[in-house]
Amino acid sequence: MSAAAALPAVPAHGCGDAPVLRERGQREVFCGLTGIVWLHRKIQDAFFLVVGSRTCAHLLQSAAGVMIFAEPRFATAIIDERDLAGLADCNDELDRVVTRLIERRPDIKLLFLVGSCPSEVIKLDLSRAAQRLSRRFSPGVRVLNYSGSGIETTFTQGEDACLAALVPEMPAEPGTARSLLVVGALAEVVEDQFLRLFAALGVGPVRFLPSRRAAELPPIGPGTRYILAQPFLGDTARALDARGATRIAAPFPLGVEGTTAWLTAAAEVWGTPAGRIADAIAPAATRARAALGRIRERLSGKSVFFFPDSQLEIPLARFLSRELGMRLAEVGTPYLHKQHLAEELAMLPEGTLLSEGQHVERQLDRCRAEKPDIAVCGLGLANPLEAEGMTTKWSIELVFTPIQGFDQAADLAELFARPLVRRAKLMV
Ligand code: SF4
């Protein structure tokens, strides 16, 4: 069976112009510091120093699953009461902490000073601190800064802020040679699969942001075409545009349909003939479709309700509804970037309830009224909803797990099928 025959027709209008329920109120989300948990694994010679409070340190420890490393690559420089009362010079303290860290850890090539609510409250200027420390420790160590503060942000915005801080550091690409930049942290296994597929499609050279090593930041210039691998990178995209790069518009590489469209969008920019695109994609797409078919039986007809959390909600909703036959009760997202999500919105079933932002009490009422088969939400809502008898999926797990690309499509579907199977067993 071909991909086209297995999928519902793309809706005539989709949700591109659909009204969006905009809500403001109490929110239940993690802050941008959470991004450190996956970014420190990704950029292997970087260190993340949060300039924050004990609360920030606890958040990081619990989000990281209290991972104890012999040589961890993130830490918190605690701002204590003396600092908050203005009794100590925070800049001197920070310089001392950084100096000690760099002396002890010669493996660190890139140090991020990560701002938090407390550092913002006392107006500690981390960008000046980063410049000062960069001058002191260059060329061995580069010091950059970004904010992971929780005020009005969501946890994936930490990655956006981190990558946006890296863009000005990317070397200029000499000339106008064309290259592809894949933007957004991906598991290495996924990067390797995409590299093989891009080679078969005649697309290259292909580089990734973030790169695995700080010293290997990809070059950028007017010949750079970039494609987003994650939907929460608005600031990074703006910074790349400012460096002269051009975005390739595409859906996101979730599921067979999303991955096919994402790869095809890049291949078309390279002028790859349609026949070659089809041949290059067919083996992996066929395998993935067969694997999805087995899970579809368990998910088809079930309803899903998305609370706004990761900003992955809209591509996930498209995948679950179109490839697995699930019904979308509500698709909430913390922030709806209409331009970056245009291709995704066009594929959502007409009439889908889209909401942006959060008024948690009202949304909980809507969720209880809907009684969805599964609710996708943050950790703070999952336990109370489970206690009310609802099946939940932690949205943060979808960011930690490799879910992009053909070979991961079935794993992604399993993440939704498993909690339903578990619930069904408990009900027997
Ligand atoms: Fe809490 Fe703000 Fe620290 Fe995040 S940055 S853990 S929201 S105090």
From TrEMBL:
Gene3D superfamilies the record matches: Nitrogenase molybdenum iron protein domain
UniProt cross-references to Pfam families, sorted A to Z: Oxidored_nitro
Co-factor note (free text): Binds 1 [4Fe-4S] cluster per heterodimer. The cluster is bound at the heterodimer interface by residues from both subunits.
Enzyme class: oxidoreductase
Positions of [4Fe-4S] cluster binding: 31, 56, 117
Keyword Cell inner membrane: no
Keyword presence, Lipid metabolism: no
InterPro entries: LIPOR_BchN/ChlN (IPR050293), Nase/OxRdtase_comp1 (IPR000510), Protochl_reductN (IPR005970)
Involved pathway(s): Porphyrin-containing compound metabolism; bacteriochlorophyll biosynthesis (light-independent)
Signal peptide coordinates: none
Keywords from the UniProt entry: 4Fe-4S, ATP-binding, Bacteriochlorophyll biosynthesis, Chlorophyll biosynthesis, Iron, Iron-sulfur, Metal-binding, Nucleotide-binding, Oxidoreductase, Photosynthesis
SUPFAM superfamilies the UniProt entry points to: Helical backbone' metal receptor
Domain Nitrogenase/oxidoreductase component, residue spans: 31-417
Enzyme Commission (EC) number: 1.3.7.7
Any GO MF annotation of the entry: oxidoreductase activity, acting on iron-sulfur proteins as donors
Catalytic activity: chlorophyllide a + oxidized 2[4Fe-4S]-[ferredoxin] + 2 ADP + 2 phosphate = protochlorophyllide a + reduced 2[4Fe-4S]-[ferredoxin] + 2 ATP + 2 H2O
TM regions (residue ranges): none
Cofactor(s) this protein cannot do without: [4Fe-4S] cluster
Any one biological process term the GO annotation gives: photosynthesis, dark reaction
Role noted for this protein: Component of the dark-operative protochlorophyllide reductase (DPOR) that uses Mg-ATP and reduced ferredoxin to reduce ring D of protochlorophyllide (Pchlide) to form chlorophyllide a (Chlide). This reaction is light-independent. The NB-protein (BchN-BchB) is the catalytic component of the complex.
Subunit structure: Protochlorophyllide reductase is composed of three subunits; BchL, BchN and BchB. Forms a heterotetramer of two BchB and two BchN subunits.
Family label: Belongs to the BchN/ChlN family.
Protein name in the entry: Light-independent protochlorophyllide reductase subunit N
Organism: Falsiroseomonas algicola
